[in-house]
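Sharing a chain and its predicted structure for anyone who wants a worked example. Both blocks are below, sequence first, tokens second.
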Amino acid sequence: MNKDKRILSGMRPTGRLHLGNLHGALKNWIQLQDQYDCYFFVADWHALTTDYADPAAIRQNTWDMILDWFAAGLDPQKAVVFIQSRVKEHAELYLLLGMITPLAWLERNPTYKEQQQQLETKDLSTYGFLGYPVLQAADIIIYRAHGVPVGKDQLPHVELTREIARRFNFIYHREVFPIPDALLTEAPVLPGTDGRKMSKSYGNCIYMTEPEESVRRKILQMVTDPQRARRSDPGDPEKCPVFEYHKLYSTAEEIADVVQGCRTAGIGCVDCKKILLPHLLGHLGPMREKRAALEKDMEEVKAAVQSGIERAGREARQTMALVVETVGLGNHA
């Protein structure tokens, strides 16, 4: 238990969450909320950096994502859950940090060119897209967070936040911001139904709260080890996407049986999937039921988020009062 240490993290609102989101970040958040002073937010302004031309879905996606957060066990009584755009101080700090951030720091960001290539159908030659790491830095340091849970691919963003915080403190000769640490999390990369990384853009997702029959159908149709063209062909579990699910959901004894059966062709791929299904469905069922209950009481859900917005706002305003004083933009009377 380390409630005197503050943790912050956010997700872009992309709608309902899939199992990759659950195991990649959300399960870790749920563990952290019992150990730290946690702030978790919907990064809706960040969504505009790539979807500025088509923002219609952001509001609905925000609530779909929050419902899944709560259904999985994120507790607004334990963590501050809020929406980024409802705390305007993020934008104020973003503006001020933009004044001191060297352009070269943003241009060398490894994900800048990568995302431009991956999202080549969108015009990302915008100031907002280039500068979004500065907004990300503002998100973190406005709450004077001590740690940011991230995977390895996000380490450069946290390092840039650390550099910006250090530069601000150095320029203004005052330790306004703690230098946040990256809390590296080893999260499984869960394959989608086609064997590639699970992603909405690939259309290969299994969603946390989708109907049981839909999950069953997707698992039974999921690709397996390509070596097993016939039932009698032996396979290699480590080359089978379904085996990654067994590692998360099945018992140790069942995993051993699957490995033996696959390598000797003692069981078929359908048999393997049928061993997995009761465990996977049993895990997802309670989340689906909890989400359905939450959907019937959206006023309570929105009240919980509003409370988080107010708590986050109080913290942000305190930080900004200190920042404004430090920069010399206080009362001009």
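Comments welcome. Residues 277 and 299 are 35 Å apart (CA to CA).
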